[in-house]
Specification:
Blueprint: H1 5-11, H2 18-36, H3 41-47, H4 52-72
Helix pairs in contact: 2-4, 3-4
Length: 80
Amino acid sequence: MPINYSALCETIGPNQPFMYRLRTALTAIAFWLAIALPVFYLPLLVLGLEASTLLIAFLVLFAGHVLALVGGKEYHRSTD
């Protein structure tokens, strides 16, 4: 599905304050990270979490996923 750049520019165009545009961008990034990060759970779980480094990697991944879920919960993409 192609991106409607004109609608995107109207939503976060140059007339919007910088902090609003930054927040919108970070929310979008967090949303898509929340979707993509679970892909990395399976390899860690298949390898097992007995090793301390794998357990730490899993916990960091889990914490990052929770942060991404919280940060991206307000994201909405316009569907014109």
